[in-house]
Amino acid sequence: MNEKITIYCDGRCGRSVTLRKNKIQKCDYYICDSKESRDICKSKLPKRKNGMIEIHTFNAVAHFQGISYKYPNEKEKVNITRAKKNLKIGLLKISINNRNYENN
Fold first, then answer.
1. Do residues 29 and 22 touch, judged by C-beta distance below 8 A?
2. Which residues contact 62 (CB under 8 A, 6 or more apart)?
3. 97 vs 76 pLDDT, higher one
4. Are the beta carbons of 38 and 21 closer than 8 angstroms?
């Protein structure tokens, strides 16, 4: 009943983790969280298609990070639009504050 499964890093670094099937969170890809190769492993994943969002699930498989790609639903599209607007406002405020600081 406690069937164990070995999951390998999709970044092809050779790292793996073995755990019970019920401890695995479903994701499209799994990458190791090693300081040495985490960024390299992530760069080897297939690129997401235009219009898709990337979802990170920390500790999806033990210490491996899970990554999934999907098209956003309507609620997520609204949140993305709001986040982009807030980012623009924040960057504008920083720019204005930097100009005021330089002029003083």
1. no
2. 17, 19, 23
3. 76
4. no
